[in-house]
Amino acid sequence: MVAVLVSRLLVAVTAAVTAAAFKGTVSSSAPLGxxxxxxxxxxxxxxxxxxxxxxxxxxxxxxxxxxxKISLGGYVPTGLPGNSGSTTAFFPLYPLLVHALGGWxxxxxxxxxxxxxxxxxxxxxxxxxxxxxxxxxxxxxxRAAVLVIAFWPAGPFFSAPYTESLFLALSAGTFLxxxxxxxxxxxxxxxxxxxTRNTGVLLVVPLAIIYFYGPRPRPAERVRPPGRxxxxxxRFSVHRDILWFALVPTGLIAFSVYLQxxxxxxxxxxxxxxxxxxxxxxxxxxxxxxxVTDAWNAVHFGLGNLGAPSLVDLGAxxxxxxxxxxxxxxxxxAYLAWVLVALAxxxxxxxxxxxxxSLPRFLSVMFPIAMWLGYELVRRRLLMPxxxxxxxLLAGTTAAFTLWYPFV
Length: 408
Prior knowledge:
By secondary structure, the chain is an all-alpha fold. The protein has 17 helices and two strands. It has helices spanning 2-21, 46-56, 63-73, 93-100, 107-137, 139-150, 164-179, 183-194, 204-212, 250-263, 268-271, 284-300, 304-330, 333-348, 359-364, 367-379, 383-402, and strands spanning 213-215, 232-234. The longest helix has 31 residues, at 107-137.
């Protein structure tokens, strides 16, 4: 896909140039805990490092360090130097795949495999979103949705050793399989998603909605013409295929069992969030109040490195609220339900000193938002100007991410 190539090239070039221009990102002068031997720059010295470092290392930031560590050595009690976090906060499917696909060969191989896995699953995810958007809103909306995600302003994570790409492919694949009433495949993909991120288990909500109130094509209409959603009607009978839904939580359950055996704490994936700045549960209204207060303080007392992200978070919140209305009007209710339940944890568990931290990243995998935005931008003939602006913002957030600013 051209969108994948152009957007990922933009991210790669921006990150490489930024890392080369600011030596603090690649030397011991970087803050403690951010340059980790064998993980941040695993290619050693010599001519090989000179070729590979600019390509693979500029995006090894923040959570990428943890995924690399887990891919290399599994879930161990020790954390990263200068960091009080825990490996148990990160779900296992992505690092497990990295290790199985070649990460076992060493530090450098782990980073290469992790990056290629992110890029490959990103491509697959966009292909699935294209088919979904075409099915629901027509071919033009399908192409537009791909562009929206590819150039999403918080999109450097799709090129980094993060779970965003894998989760996008699995969650969108769950929807596509459910739309075709392939319940075993939908439940299996959702189960894999629940082993990728803690919100993956919540895919059971839109799955149940599609099952009990969804399109009912006749066998000859399994593949509908683009843009024809079919008639969504209630299901008043339950068949054996609903038993496949038991697969949805298997990823979360398997991880919990593993943690119980290894650490005698099956809730470690949840409790370890406290070490990453999410110490308590509160109401969404409190989180929204804190987010607005953070943004106001950023403007009133000056932006700085810590204030600017609060304004970015508030902008992402605005996009989310507008999109919820659009999704409710243009897409089946299952898509709206997925956005609401998938983002609920971010509003119930605010980040300290920046209530909605990571919201722009969380939105990047919410494909219903991209589907609706693509549809609206095409309808209003604003697609290309919007994508151009988004590309500029993507370059900016990539540079900020490379420089360790907290746009995560």
